[in-house]
Structure formats: structure tokens, C-alpha cells
Structure prediction request, 224 residues.
Amino acid sequence: MTLSRAALLRIAPFAAFMGLLALRGAAPTDGSWGFDARWLYALNLVVVGGLLLWWWREYGELSRPNAPTVREAALAVAVGLGVFVAWILLDAPWMRLGEPSAPFHALGADGRFDLGLVAVRWLGATLVVPVMEELFWRSFLMRWFERPVFEGVDPRAVGARAVVLSTFVFVLVHPLWLAAVVAGLAYALLYRATGRLWTAVIAHAVTNGVLGLYVVSTGRWDFW
Prediction:
């Protein structure tokens, strides 16, 4: 099957992110590579963020005319906060599928926060990941499940089958499977209800941003 340019531009940043995730998971934690492997996360800002910026003008759904209204943005913030609450509550052992492939914490040898690592992780999770993931999971995959020539699919016309299938695949890459079900459905339904990808991006960014603040303030590094 030949993928369109629009599909490739949504897949490539996600593929780069997953490749960097695998690299971080394979990196030794003893410094035997000659550097602190936790800093590999900064590559997401450079590589994934760079790809998004390079192709930004081709992401029509993120153009200024498709910006959300104030009411839609407020709804997106509320959904993002709701997903955050679900994410930290739905963490019982039976709600987990394995462990994160590249666990992250930002404590130095003296037990203090490494503010540089915290900033890199938080910026990546809040600014880069929501755009990259929503372009892939919702803008591409959800609409592709509805119809392979996805570019012409109005998100407001996407059926339940496409929402469920894209959410199922979304869950497969998140250890907290039940929380991921809630998040995937919330972002997908928000996108479908408003017809604007920005609302899903904003909700996702709010979830990740607040979750990052929660992780740093409580020391629950397992959420990162």
C-alpha cells in the first residue's frame, strides 16, 4: 500500500519518537556510554520537534484558521485536566501492562532534582509529544481507519469503529492501559465533537503538563 505524503508527514515524527524511545530503553544506566543516558530525551526536542517545525505549514489542521474558539479551548483544558485525574488514579497493578520501556527520573547522585533534566522532560512532554501524537493517532490513524484516503475525512463524521480501533492501538503503547483507554477516547471524542485537532492537542498538552508538575512535586517518577 502506498502512503500519501500527508500520511508520511504524520507518521515520520511518531516513528522518530518511537525510535528514540527504543534507544533510551537500550541505553545503559551506568554511564558506560560516556554520558548520562537520561539526556537522550533531549533528542526528542531536536529531532521530533525539528520535523514538526520543518513540516508545520503542511499540517493544515494546525493552521491559524483552524484554531479553536475560546469555548472550545476551555473545553479542551477541562478534558485535559479530567484525563490527568484519571491517569493518576487508574494505576493499580491490574491496570498496568508491563513497565515503561524507558523509565525516567531527574534526581542526581545527591538526591536533588536536576533542573535541566526536568525542564527537558517537561518541555518535550508538554510541547512536542501532544502535537506529534495527535497528528499520528487522531489526525492520521483514526481517520485512516474510517477511510484509507484519510485527508478528506471530516473528523466529525468518523464512526465509532474508527474511534475504538485507534484507541485500542493507542493503548498498546502505554503501560497504564485503563488510563490510556480513558485518554484515547477523551481526545478522540473531543476531536470528533469539535472537528478541530487543536482541541485534542491542547487537552493532551494540559494532561502532560500537569502530570509533569505532579511527578516533580510528589516524586512519582513511575508516571514519567
Remarks:
- Residues 115-146 form the longest helix (32 residues).
- Residues 86 and 179 are 6 Å apart (CA to CA).
- Residues 5-223 form one domain.
- The chain has a mean pLDDT of 95.
